[in-house]
Specification:
Blueprint lengths: L26 E2 L38 E6 L5 E4 L3 H4 L5 E5 L7 E6 L2 E10 L5 E10 L2 E4 L8 E3 L5 E9 L2 E10 L5 H8 L43 H9 L3 E8 L14 E5 L1 H12 L4 E4 L1 H9 L10 E5 L1 E2 L11 E4 L8 H9 L1 H13 L10 E5 L10
Parallel strand pairs: 1-16, 2-18, 4-12, 4-14, 14-17
Antiparallel strand pairs: 2-3, 5-6, 5-9, 6-7, 7-8, 7-11, 9-10, 10-11, 12-13, 13-15, 17-18
Helix pairs in contact: 6-7
Length: about 400
C-alpha cells in the first residue's frame, strides 16, 4: 500500500483491526497537507520506460546491469554503473533494506457478469483484505474501474468469494475492504494457486514471480507480503552484497508490506504494516553515532525507519501500522540517504526525495536522468540521493 502517532515521528502503535488508522489513507506529516514542490518532469518519454528486467535486455546482463544516478545534496549529480556502488559508499555506512516478499497479488475474478482482476493490497487485522478491482485491458494488463458497490460478491477461482464491505478511505473508493467467504479461507493459498504478479501497461510481457523478488526477500510465516515489489532492492545481487560487506558497509533489515500503489491518481500511500527489529535499531543508532551514513534502500525503508524514530532521530524497535507520509516540512530524522527508482510526475514519493536531499538536488537529478536517458519504473535505473550534511564530510 498504520501506526497511531507515526506522523509525529515517535514509535508507532498498532492500528485497529482491519481499519484505516486515523480515518484517512495516510496523513501528510508537517501539517501542510503536502504538495509537490515542483514538477521535475511533465511526462516520461515512452523510450525511457523500462519494459523488461535488466537481465533480459541483452546477453551477459544481470540484475545489477542498471545505471546509478547519484545526487549529493548541494553538488552536481553523476552517473555510474550500479555495480560501482561499493566504491561510492564508505566503511561504516548502513544500507537499510526491506525484507518483504512480493506476492502474486493479481487474481482473475467475476463480479456479476463482468470480468475483473482483483489486486490484493493489504491484509487487515480482522481477516479482511483491502483490494482494488481493475478491468482487464488485454495483453495481461488492466485499467481502472469504479470501486464497489458495497455488498457486491466477487467470484474467485475454486469457489471462493469476496464480499465488498466499504471503501478503505471515506474520500476515495479505489481500495475497498473485502471479507473472504466462505470464512475462513487462506488468501495466501489462493494467491499461490491462482495469483500472478501485478503488472502495469508499460511492461512488455508477463514475468514470473521470481522476477519481482529481491535478494533480501524473506517469506513471512503467515503468508503476508507486498502487493508490489520493493523495487529499489531489485538490482542487488548476492555477489554485490558480498562486495559491499567486504568494504565495511553493513545491512540492516526491516519489513514493510507495501500495498497497491495508485498508478493513475498518485494518491498518498495508505497505511501499511511494518516492523523494525531491535537489532536494526541498534545498528542504525550506532552508525549515526560513529559518523556513518544511514541509507534507506527504497521509499518503503524510509517510511518504516522514520516511523520508528523519535524526534532526536534515535530509532527504536517498533511495529504495527504506519500512516507516515514524509514531506520536506517534516524532514527526515534517521535517514541520511535514499536509494530509489525514478518516480512519475506528481508522485507523492517526490516529497520524500525532497525531504532527504532538498528540492535543488532532486531537480538537478531528474534533469540529468532525462538528459542521460535513464530508465523509469521497477525494472529501470536507480537514484541515490544524499543529504547535504557537513557532519558527514564529503559525499560520494
Amino acid at each position: 500500500m498504520s501506526g497511531i502517532g507515526a506522523a509525529g515521528g515517535g514509535p508507532a502503535g498498532g492500528g485497529p483491526p482491519g481499519s484505516v488508522v486515523g480515518g484517512r489513507a495516510g496523513r501528510v506529516a508537517g501539517g501542510s497537507g503536502g504538495s509537490i514542490s515542483g514538477l521535475y518532469i511533465t511526462d516520461i518519454p515512452r523510450e525511457l520506460l523500462a519494459r523488461v528486467p535488466a537481465e533480459q535486455r541483452g546477453p551477459g546482463r544481470g540484475r545489477d546491469s542498471v545505471r546509478l544516478l547519484v545526487s549529493p545534496g548541494g553538488a552536481q549529480p553523476s552517473l555510474h554503473a550500479f555495480r560501482e556502488l561499493p566504491h561510492l559508499l564508505r566503511a561504516g555506512d548502513v544500507l537499510v533494506v526491506n525484507t518483504s516478499a512480493t506476492l502474486a497479488a493479481a487474481v482473475d475474478a467475476r463480479l456479476g457478469g463482468e470480468d475483473v482482476v482483483v489486486h490484493f493490497s493489504t491484509r487487515g487485522d480482522d481477516g479482511r483484505w483491502a483490494v482494488e478491482l481493475r478491468a482487464p485491458a488485454g495483453r495481461g494488463t488492466t485499467r481502472p474501474r469504479p470501486g464497489g458497490p458495497a455488498g457486491a460478491v466477487v467470484e474467485l477461482p475454486g469457489g471462493r468469494r469476496l464480499v465488498l464491505e466499504q471503501p478503505l478511505a471515506a474520500d476515495a473508493d479505489r481500495l475497498w475492504w473485502a471479507r473472504p467467504s466462505p470464512a475462513p479461507y487462506g488468501v495466501p493459498e489462493l494467491l499461490r494457486e491462482h495469483g500472478r504478479p501485478i503488472r502495469y501497461a508499460y511492461t512488455e510481457r508477463d514475468q514470473p514471480l521470481s522476477a519481482y523478488q529481491t535478494v533480501f526477500a524473506v517469506p513471512a510465516a503467515d503468508g503476508s507480503g507486498s502487493a508490489e515489489m520493493p523495487s529499489a532492492g531489485r538490482p542487488f545481487t548476492a555477489e554485490l552484497v558480498a562486495r559491499l560487506v567486504s568494504r565495511g558497509v553493513q545491512f540492516a533489515p526491516l519489513t514493510l508490506h507495501t500495498g497497491v500503489a495508485s498508478q493513475e491518481a498518485h494518491e498518498p500511500p495508505y497505511p501499511e504494516r511494518y516492523a523494525v527489529p531491535a537489532t536494526t535499531a541498534a545498528l542504525v543508532n550506532a552508525a549515526r553515532a560513529g559518523g556513518g551514513r544511514v541509507i534507506a534502500v527504497g521509499t518503503t525503508a524510509v517510511r518504516a525507519l522514520e516511523s520508528a524514530a523519535d524526534e532526536r532521530g534515535v530509532v527504536h524497535a517498533a511495529g504495527g501500522w504506519t500512516d507516515l507520509v514524509v514531506t520536506p516540512e517534516r524532514g527526515v530524522r534517521a535517514v541520511d540517504g535514499l536509494l530509489t527508482g525514478l518516480h512519475e510526475p506528481e508522485a507523492s514519493h517526490l516529497l520524500m526525495l525532497e525531504a532527504v536531499a532538498g528540492r535543488a538536488a532532486v531537480r538537478l537529478g531528474y534533469a540529468q536522468a532525462l538528459a542521460r536517458l535513464c530508465l523509469w519504473h521497477e525494472f529501470g535505473d536507480v537514484h541515490l540521493l544524499l543529504k547535504d550534511d557537513n557532519r558527514h564530510g564529503s559525499h560520494c
